[in-house]
Amino acid sequence: MECAWSAVRTNGRLKARYHRLVLRFGGYRNPAAKKRAIVAIAHTLIVIIWHVLAVGRTYTDLGPDFYATRADPAKEAQRLIARLEALGHKVTLAPAA
Asked: Domain coordinates of the chain in residue numbers?
């Protein structure tokens, strides 16, 4: 668990994953959410270590913006438009100035 706490304090994919998990598990005011997220990060570390030892490749971090750049902007725009229309709004897109 100490390794997981250390991993979430450095900029990288594990820190971004921790923040996403805490929000999914109940938010920062919920101590149980933080604990569950740390257990998930510890599991992720174990999987990373296993892959490094089994395959023999070095680990390269995907970066703190991995989750932000992974989403396709066009799909995200369509998802948000559909969500607004489901709420009863009419959406028209115009290019940004």
From this structure: 2-70
Longest C-alpha distance within the chain, in Å?
A: 54
pLDDT at residue number 68: 77
Neighbours of 15 (CB within 10 A): 16
Segment 48-95, tens digit of pLDDT: 999 999 998 898 888 888 877 777 888 888 999 999 999 999 998 888
Measured CA to CA, the distance from residue 23 to residue 25 in angstroms comes to: 6
Who's near 91: CB < 8 A, 6+ residues apart?
81, 84, 85
Phi, psi for 48 (deg, rounded to 5): -60, -45
% of the chain exceeding 70 in pLDDT: 100
State both tokens at 17: 């994953």
Alpha helices in 1-97 (DSSP H): 2-7, 13-25, 31-55, 66-70, 73-86
